[in-house]
């Protein structure tokens, strides 16, 4: 059995060679993690002042913190003499592959971040996108959930919401109601205008400014089409619209102003 003599000089050389790098790596690691913590606190304060959505705050802070920590770890390992080029290349290739595989989900994710950050709508708003409309029930990072007036649930990908026009009916305190009314060609336009304005002005929910107006919008085939436009509070819109539409019909009937239906004249020629 061979006896190996402990070489103190070799150990000393090893320590003197690698100890400085180890100490530097530890110092960089400790200092780097401390700086990452400070940056995280600063980001939190900025988000709070900017009124960023709380769910988005936590996600972005975690993402930024993770990226910075990975950079600190890579820097520390590099100072130990460990070759990180291949590791970074593999990490980048893996990230690219995952990104291509989850392209649709990443689009929805980016859309969710934009929606939560810029807030084109919020929970409780009534919005419309194309043929889909409803009250916003929940905004997730990937999807937005709408509740329709028929009590149906619609799950809309955030990528579509962020990249297409969205109408927000709840964003303003007031809203204009438009009533389309057709009267016969023989009816008195001024009288019809007076009747419609009288109905609207008698409603306490009507906003006096801007004042309601009734204008002639079209000389149609069978009718003169009037458009009445009045402003009310957003919360009163539908009751205001439905009730006054019915009252306008009743008052026009009382005044003998006919609301015509589509008709066509047929001329018959007798041929002997």
Characterize the biggest β-sheet: 5 strands, antiparallel
Parts with pLDDT < 50 across at least 5 consecutive residues? 1-5
CATH topology description of the largest domain: Helix Hairpins
Text of the CATH class of the largest domain:
Mainly Alpha
Number of helices: 7
What is the string of helix and strand elements? HHHHEEEEHEEHEEH
Q: What does it look like?
A:
- With 272 residues, the protein is an alpha+beta fold.
- It folds into 3 domains: 10-101, Helix Hairpins (Orthogonal Bundle); 121-168, SH3 type barrels (Roll), CATH 2.30.30.60; 174-254, Alpha-Beta Plaits (2-Layer Sandwich).
- The protein has 7 helices and 8 strands.
- It has a 5-stranded antiparallel beta sheet with strand order 4-3-2-1-5. A 3-stranded antiparallel beta sheet has the order 6-8-7, covered by helices on one side.
- Mean pLDDT is 82; it is low at 1-5.
Which SSEs are present, and which pair or pack?
Elements: H1 8-49, H2 54-79, H3 85-101, H4 103-118, E1 126-129, E2 132-139, E3 143-147, E4 153-157, H5 158-162, E5 167-168, E6 174-183, H6 189-201, E7 213-219, E8 224-233, H7 237-254
Antiparallel strand pairs: 1-2, 1-5, 2-3, 3-4, 6-8, 7-8
Helix pairs in contact: 1-2, 6-7
């Amino acid at each position: 059995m061979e006896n190996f003599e402990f070489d103190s000089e070799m150990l000393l050389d090893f320590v003197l060679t690698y100890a400085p790098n180890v100490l530097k790596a530890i110092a960089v690691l400790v200092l780097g993690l401390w700086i990452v913590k400070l940056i995280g606190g600063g980001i939190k304060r900025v988000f709070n002042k900017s009124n960023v959505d709380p769910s988005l705050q936590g996600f972005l802070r975690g993402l930024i913190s993770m990226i910075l920590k990975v950079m600190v770890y890579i820097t520390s390992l590099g100072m130990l003499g460990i070759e990180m080029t291949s590791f970074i290349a593999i990490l980048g290739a893996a990230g690219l592959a995952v990104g291509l595989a989850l392209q649709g989900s990443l689009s929805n994710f980016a859309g969710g971040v934009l929606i939560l950050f810029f807030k084109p709508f919020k929970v409780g708003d009534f919005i419309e996108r194309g043929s889909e409309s409803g009250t916003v029930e929940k905004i997730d990072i990937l999807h937005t959930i709408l509740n329709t007036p028929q009590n149906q649930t619609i799950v809309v990908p955030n990528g579509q919401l962020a990249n297409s026009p969205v109408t927000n009916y709840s964003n303003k305190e007031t809203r204009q109601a438009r009533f389309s009314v057709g009267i016969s060609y023989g009816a008195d336009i001024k009288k019809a205008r007076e009747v419609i304005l009288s109905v609207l002005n008698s409603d306490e929910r009507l906003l006096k400014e801007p004042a309601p107006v009734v204008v002639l919008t079209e000389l149609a085939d069978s009718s003169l089409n009037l458009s009445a436009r009045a402003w009310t509070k957003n919360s009163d819109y539908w009751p205001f619209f439905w009730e006054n539409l019915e009252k306008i019909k009743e008052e026009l009937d009382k005044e003998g102003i006919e609301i015509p239906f589509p008709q066509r004249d047929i001329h018959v020629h007798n041929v002997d």
